[in-house]
Amino acid sequence: MRIYTDEIINAICLHIADRKSVALTAVEAELAWDEQYGFTAEVWVHERSQYLVEANLLEAIEQYMFKQYQRRIFRSQIKLGLDDEDFWADITE
Q1: Which of 4, 23, 75, 85 has the fewest CB atoms within 10 Å, i.e. is most exposed?
Q2: Cα–Cα distance between 71 and 34 in angstroms, integer?
Q3: Which InterPro entries does the UniProt entry name for this protein (predicted)?
């Protein structure tokens, strides 16, 4: 299974809203990749910024897959990637 940018951002926003006990509408996220840090996301909650590293992104996707698809997966089953237009996450069985 593969999920793309919008669904990864949804996973991050749902995860952060749950962790910080705020409304989902209070959370915004933007994905990024660079050579030094790899996959990251900048997240805003009530106009306060926070950076998430790849481990945090994998945790968010893991929780999202369980809550939205009722699939129990582990971080080792998730591979993040990027092409010219989209971020994606491959999830293996």
Answers
A1: 85
A2: 30
A3: Uncharacterised_YxcD
Place of tokens 């910024």: 49
8 A C-beta contact, residue 87 and residue 81: yes
The 3-state DSSP class for residue 18 equals helix
Q: What is the pTM of this model?
A: 0.92
CA distance 29 to 50: 9
Pull the structure tokens for residue 45: 């909650």
Edge-to-edge strand list for the sheet holding 78-82: 2-4, 87-91, 78-82
